[in-house]
Amino acid sequence: MGIIELLILAFALAMDAFAVSICLGLKMQKVTIRKALIVGLYFGIFQALMLLIGYLAASSFAEMIESFDHWIVFILLLLLGLKMIVDSFREEGEEKEDASLHPRNMLPYAIATSIDSLAVGISLAFLKADIISAMVAVGMIALILSMIGVKFGGLFGSRFESKVEFAGGLVLILIGVKILLEHLEFIGF
Fold first, then answer.
1. pLDDT of 97 over the 60 cut
2. Count of beta carbons in the 10 Å neighbourhood of residue 139
3. Which of 46, 49, 64, 101 sees the fewest Cβ atoms within 10 Å?
């Protein structure tokens, strides 16, 4: 696998993390480099670790998680999306709840956005790809795009907070539905 293919793969895997990062940025009272870095580290580390787990587990583990991974992702994104939509209807004067970066809140997001990396890691094992290079590329791209996503969400959140928060929640739900339908083979994107 060449560097171009590896970078394309890394960007593709980071898109879910990017979308969730935008949503987290929307919920932040103030976006800081530290907060963006924390989000980026969660997503980057989990993307790389799940890639490695998939690589090491290869085909035996894939069969175990393959039957329900899409449901996990769907439920997590649905819950996050619904919460954002409900929050978008709060009164103008209400205090904005800051996005919590506590592990109990971040771990479900990190897991949900990195399940695809698990499957890709399995594929890379069959291709006998260099897993270290893949982990570095996937982890770094996820980290960088997640940090950008937080900043992007923070910029739009301060200007169009309720509308963007509603749209962000809707996008997360649609991503979850798309993943669910793809795995249930209703559509083939």
1. no
2. 25
3. 64
